[in-house]
């Protein structure tokens, strides 16, 4: 399906490209402010962070143009190859010396490369290819019709059985990243669940995830507490309380089913009820065990801080407290460009102010107006990606577009959420905004491949 | 399929929902909630307080009596203090090696990059030797601060001293912060709020480790420290200095008041000390030494001791008797020594005579006439009524009353009344009780030896009341406050219950005390000054080895001058020095002469007082019983 006659740029989605340019431009100016040092104040000074960011932007544009000149069939053809290379790199990086306790960098000269940033691209391509090949098999729908979900781990077990390859494509790099260890990027891989959801798989998984997060949060909040049962002088732990509550709900549902459901349908519902009750109780125990045994102390701390279980503004909560103070002190209009007194390189109250906490410098200097503008910009970008995805006739492109949207969404949600104290501190970059060559390049490539695939939407006859 | 198509809306909805949550949260944090702005200021700003110099104090002749002097604290930034020759430094700063090591460790623990205090308050004279060598010790530098300086070594009790606030002060008075100084006594304390000035504030930006990186918003919110207000006090510093000179080697006090205004002209308490001792780094050490001294130099005897007034009280007795109409100016009573002891003198033919000769039995009868007026049949009930009438009169002379003096820690004298003898005297557990006492029980009050107690300040005020023929102004120190008026209360005239016309004969008697043969205070005579005075001797007791021993009497003199246009009223107490006319009267006359004429002509009298050493030796002064 060769493109004939038309200029390769004619069908590019300029709106999305425009948002990209705005974000990168604002990002560079913001990094300039966040990491300003008088010795490296030149705009193209490669010794400065903004200079390096500009250089990586140039590299990104260079690769972007190459991508635009490629054929989309070429991209599809090498989807698995790119995936393979990123998995290989992810395996390889585990043998490099640890930086900050994690094996996640390949050092090349003065620059470092993080293969985990590119793994997202690999998985997005491979997943698009895989789902494109398996199209027509309405596994998800069949499953959702045959079982009531609740009795078989909400469809999780049959899903894994029936879609082993999908789980493998996402799971392999995810596990390799977890081995680095890089919990932040690992979490980003759960973004693909949203993609699968859109593609008709695992309708319950989304609901399951939301309920699971709520139960997990409640479990973690009350697990350390104990309370005395009213009327009786029995002291209960938080966990027992949750289990009792779950049993109570089970009983209520049992009574509801017995009263309102036809006897022939009851059996299935009873099974579902019993199954979900069992799973919930197991899950509560798993969360508590996982929290105390799997998570590392600093991760536990970050969760506790977000949940408000620890209040230690100058100790354990130092980062998040400084970040919130920087953002909150921005006020409505902000302190003005280069006027930040907390999130800048001179004062350094906010740590990692040019990478993970880049949002702080922006918010402190630009105030609520600026923060709101940025939130709107990201939202428009994400919605634009959904629009692009939905106008595709090719399932490959649609899956890829959703992957890109969901990856960006996760980064945006976690990074901003952490800066304003709604999410635990997880070190992942804000797309196009945080300082960092690998992330800028990989985000750019995701975007350019999307633009390229989208530009050929009219001639791809699927 | 419709079902799955609609999932795009779910996804878009999730995106939008998260953004709405973020926007709400950001709006709350950045616009609504003020706590983060405060938090940010707390983190990023360093509020530096600049200390104002304290207000200067002048005397009534505009002589500077308290000024400020720059002292130096030595601070250290541990990170900059490298290759320090600590042996030499310790020698230079005059501190011990242990102290140096301790302070340096504290500084390091506090912060390597922030400064800590190492030595405080090096006086300028000592710092002159330190300054040229300080450059050899990188990381060590001086911080100037102003402390009090007293040009003359005079008036320690009056001016008071200052020291650092403690935790309790800070809790009680939130204005003060750790390290601040506060007036503890005297004028420094009374006018603390006027003298302390207004602190200035400088906002600096600091980085994550606390190092200053610049000024906040170009110093927009900085304020300058404002020096405390100048005040002028009514004391005549020349007179004060002279009084302290005269009181050297004596225990006691001198208080002088200008009767026309109530302004205190001098307030001497002896022994005194150099007020400069309680300034600077040796404050604690010196205070300890003064506190240990058996002669109690820290005690302000003029305001914090009350004594029996002795015979000086007879003037008040005479005035009350006249006002009550129980005697006339010509009333005469026999000198009945069997009632109460007296010295040999002719019979007093009238009040003037009685005051001049200080006849004890005379005032025994006066007291009896006042207290036993025969209003009740029962002697006891009659005395109870009479005593309360008498007590009201005495109180109207300011004794035991709140005189609203602008001076902290004043003790009040005591006027016994009916209630006192009924419930408190001799002890609360075993008082006389109602209708169990009469004049015969309490008659010593009539000659100033009973339960009446007067402070030297009150005594001087009584002299002022007599000088004014019946009225007085609350005694006070303040004369001028920069940019504000002195309190209205000091302009208000207070009247005693005795009308002016009754004063003439008493004053006449007081004039004759000084000027006539047979007067008790002829040593106080200064030609042309017309000093009117009254001597007194107060019996006093101390418990020595569990025994109540009587000591040599306190010598008391109360006077004013000149007779017709009084410019000064004075009380002099010299402890354990005997008869009032011997020491207290001439000393008072010297003070009066010095104040009115500016110089003392009678150098013989002056030298006699200057050379007298009247400090009692406690073991030898037990009064020989007659």
Structure characterization notes:
The complex is a heterodimer of chains A (462) and B (626). In chain A, the strands form two sheets. In chain A, strands 1-2 form a two-stranded antiparallel sheet. A two-stranded antiparallel sheet of chain A has the order 3-4. Chain A is built from 18 helices and four strands. The radius of gyration of chain A is 24 Å and the shape is globular. The N and C termini of chain A lie close together (10 Å). Residues 1-5 and 138-151 of chain A have low confidence and may be disordered. With 462 residues, chain A is mainly α. Chain B is α+β, with helices and mostly antiparallel strands and 626 residues long. Chain B is 35% helix and 19% strand. Chain B has 23 helices and 18 strands. In chain B, helix 14 (313-324) packs across helix 16. The longest helix of chain B has 26 residues, at 7-32. The radius of gyration of chain B is 33 Å and the shape is elongated. The model of chain B has no long low-confidence stretch (mean pLDDT 89). At the A-B interface, helix 10, helix 15, helix 16 and helix 17 of A face helix 2 and helix 3 of B.
Describe the secondary structure blueprint for this structure.
The complex is a heterodimer of chains A (462) and B (626).
Chain A: H1 14-34, H2 49-69, H3 72-77, H4 79-93, E1 106-108, E2 111-113, H5 115-133, H6 139-146, H7 156-162, H8 164-179, H9 183-189, H10 191-198, H11 203-222, E3 226-228, E4 235-237, H12 238-260, H13 263-293, H14 297-307, H15 318-328, H16 358-390, H17 395-419, H18 437-455
Antiparallel strand pairs in A: 1-2, 3-4
Helix pairs in contact in A: 1-2, 1-16, 2-18, 4-5, 4-8, 5-8, 5-17, 5-18, 8-9, 10-17, 11-13, 12-13, 15-16, 16-17, 17-18
Chain B: H1 2-5, H2 7-32, H3 35-44, E1 45-50, E2 57-58, E3 64-76, H4 86-93, H5 97-110, E4 116-122, H6 124-130, E5 140-149, H7 156-159, E6 162-164, H8 167-172, E7 181-183, H9 186-190, H10 192-195, E8 200-206, E9 212-215, E10 231-233, H11 237-246, E11 252-258, E12 263-270, H12 283-292, H13 301-304, H14 313-324, H15 351-357, H16 360-371, H17 379-395, H18 418-423, H19 439-442, H20 456-467, E13 471-472, E14 478-481, E15 494-495, H21 503-515, E16 532-544, E17 547-561, E18 568-574, H22 584-597, H23 603-611
Parallel strand pairs in B: 2-10
Antiparallel strand pairs in B: 1-8, 2-3, 3-4, 3-5, 6-7, 8-9, 10-14, 11-12, 11-18, 13-15, 16-17, 17-18
Helix pairs in contact in B: 11-22, 14-16, 15-21
């Amino acid at each position: 399906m060769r493109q004939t006659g038309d200029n390769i740029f004619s069908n590019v989605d300029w709106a999305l490209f425009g948002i990209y340019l705005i974000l990168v431009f604002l990002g560079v100016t913001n990094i300039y402010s966040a990491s300003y040092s008088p010795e490296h104040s030149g705009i193209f000074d490669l010794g400065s962070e903004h200079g390096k960011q500009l250089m990586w932007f140039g590299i990104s544009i260079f690769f972007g143009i190459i991508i635009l000149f490629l054929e989309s069939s070429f991209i599809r053809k090498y989807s698995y190859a790119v995936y393979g290379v990123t998995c290989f790199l992810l395996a390889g990086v585990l043998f490099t010396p640890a930086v900050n306790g994690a094996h996640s960098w390949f050092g090349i000269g003065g620059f470092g490369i993080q293969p985990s940033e590119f793994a997202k691209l690999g998985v997005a391509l491979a997943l698009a290819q895989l789902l494109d090949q398996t199209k027509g098999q309405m596994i998800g729908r069949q499953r959702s019709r045959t079982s009531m979900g609740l009795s078989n781990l909400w469809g999780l077990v049959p899903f894994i059985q029936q879609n082993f390859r999908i789980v493998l494509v996402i799971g392999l790099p995810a596990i390799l990243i977890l081995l680095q260890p890089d919990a932040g990027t690992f979490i980003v891989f759960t973004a693909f669940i949203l993609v699968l959801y859109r593609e008709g798989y695992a309708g319950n998984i989304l609901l399951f995830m939301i309920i699971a997060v709520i139960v997990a949060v409640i479990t973690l909040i009350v697990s350390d507490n104990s309370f005395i049962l009213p009327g009786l002088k029995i002291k209960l732990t938080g966990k027992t309380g949750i289990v009792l509550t779950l049993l109570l709900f089970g009983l209520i549902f049992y009574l509801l089913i017995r009263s309102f459901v036809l006897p022939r349908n009851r059996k299935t519902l009873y099974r579902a009820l019993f199954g979900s009750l069992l799973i919930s109780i197991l899950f509560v125990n798993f969360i508590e065990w996982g929290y105390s045994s799997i998570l590392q102390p600093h991760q536990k701390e970050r969760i506790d801080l977000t949940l408000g279980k620890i209040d230690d503004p100058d100790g354990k909560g130092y980062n998040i407290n400084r970040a919130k103070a920087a953002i909150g002190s921005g006020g409505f209009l902000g302190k003005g460009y280069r006027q930040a007194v907390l999130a800048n390189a001179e004062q350094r109250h906010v740590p990692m102010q040019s990478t993970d906490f880049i949002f702080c410098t922006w918010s402190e200097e630009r105030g609520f107006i600026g923060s709101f503008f940025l939130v709107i910009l990201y939202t428009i970008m994400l919605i634009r990606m959904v629009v692009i995805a939905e106008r595709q006739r090719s399932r490959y492109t649609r899956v890829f577009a959703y992957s890109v949207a969901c990856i960006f969404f996760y980064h945006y949600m976690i990074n901003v959420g952490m800066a304003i104290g709604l999410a635990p501190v997880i070190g992942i970059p804000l797309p196009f905004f945080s300082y960092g060559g690998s992330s800028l390049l990989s985000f750019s490539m995701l975007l350019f491949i999307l633009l390229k695939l989208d530009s050929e939407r009219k001639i791809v006859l699927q | 399929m419709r079902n799955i198509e609609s999932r795009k809306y779910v996804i878009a909805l999730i995106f939008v929902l998260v953004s709405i949550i973020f926007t709400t949260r950001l709006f709350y944090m950045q616009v609504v909630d003020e706590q983060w702005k405060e938090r940010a200021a707390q983190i990023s700003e360093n509020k530096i307080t600049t200390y104002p110099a304290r207000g200067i104090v002048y005397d009534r002749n505009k002589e500077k009596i308290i000024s400020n002097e720059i002292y130096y604290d030595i601070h250290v930034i541990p990170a900059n203090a490298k290759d320090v020759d600590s042996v030499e430094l310790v020698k230079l700063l005059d501190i011990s090696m242990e102290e140096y090591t301790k302070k340096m460790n504290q500084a390091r623990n506090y912060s390597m990059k922030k400064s800590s205090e190492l030595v405080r308050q090096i006086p300028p004279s000592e710092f002159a030797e330190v300054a040229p060598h300080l450059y050899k010790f990188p990381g060590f530098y001086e911080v100037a601060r102003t402390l009090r300086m007293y040009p003359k070594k005079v008036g320690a009790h009056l001016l008071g001293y200052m020291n650092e606030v403690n935790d309790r002060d800070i809790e009680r008075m939130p204005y003060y912060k750790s390290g601040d100084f506060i007036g503890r006594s005297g004028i420094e304390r009374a006018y603390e709020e006027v003298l302390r000035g207004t602190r200035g504030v400088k906002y600096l930006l600091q980085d994550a480790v606390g190092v200053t990186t610049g000024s906040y918003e170009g110093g927009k919110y900085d304020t300058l420290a404002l020096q405390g207000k100048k005040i002028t006090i009514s004391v005549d510093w020349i007179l004060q200095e002279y009084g302290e000179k005269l009181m050297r080697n004596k225990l006691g006090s001198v208080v002088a008041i200008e009767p026309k205004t109530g302004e205190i002209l001098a307030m001497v308490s002896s022994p005194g000390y150099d007020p400069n001792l309680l300034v600077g780094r040796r404050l604690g050490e010196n205070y300890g030494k003064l506190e240990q001294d058996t002669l109690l130099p820290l005690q302000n005897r003029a305001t914090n001791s009350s004594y029996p007034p002795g015979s000086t009280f007879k003037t008040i007795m005479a005035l009350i008797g006249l006002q009550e109409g129980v005697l006339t100016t010509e009333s005469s009573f026999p000198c009945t020594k069997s009632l109460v002891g007296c010295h040999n003198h002719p019979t007093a033919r009238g009040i003037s005579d009685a005051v001049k000769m200080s006849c004890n039995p005379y005032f025994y009868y006066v007291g009896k006439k006042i207290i036993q007026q025969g209003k009740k049949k029962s002697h006891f009930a009659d005395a109870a009524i009479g005593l309360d009438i008498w007590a009201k009169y005495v109180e109207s002379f300011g004794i035991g009353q709140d005189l609203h003096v602008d001076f902290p820690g004043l003790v009040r004298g005591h006027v016994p009344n009916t209630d006192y003898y009924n419930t408190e005297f001799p002890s609360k557990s075993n008082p006389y009780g109602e209708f169990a006492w009469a004049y015969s029980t309490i008659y010593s009050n009539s000659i100033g030896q009973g339960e009446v107690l007067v402070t030297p300040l009150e005594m001087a005020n009584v002299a002022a009341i007599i000088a004014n023929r019946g009225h007085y102004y609350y005694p006070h120190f303040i004369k001028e406050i920069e940019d504000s008026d002195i309190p209205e209360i000091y302009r208000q005239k207070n009247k005693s219950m005795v009308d002016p016309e009754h004063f003439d004969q008493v004053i006449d008697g007081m004039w004759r005390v000084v000027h006539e043969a047979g007067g008790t205070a002829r040593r106080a005579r200064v030609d042309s000054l017309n000093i009117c005075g009254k001597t007194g001797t107060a019996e006093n007791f101390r418990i020595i080895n569990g025994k109540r021993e009587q000591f040599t009497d306190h010598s008391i003199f109360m006077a004013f001058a000149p007779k017709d246009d009084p410019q000064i009223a004075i009380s002099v107490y010299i402890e354990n020095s005997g008869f009032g006319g011997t020491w207290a009267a001439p000393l008072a006359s010297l003070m009066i002469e010095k104040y009115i004429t500016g110089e003392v002509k009678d150098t013989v009298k002056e030298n006699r007082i200057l050379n007298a050493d009247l400090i009692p030796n406690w073991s030898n002064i037990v009064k020989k019983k007659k």
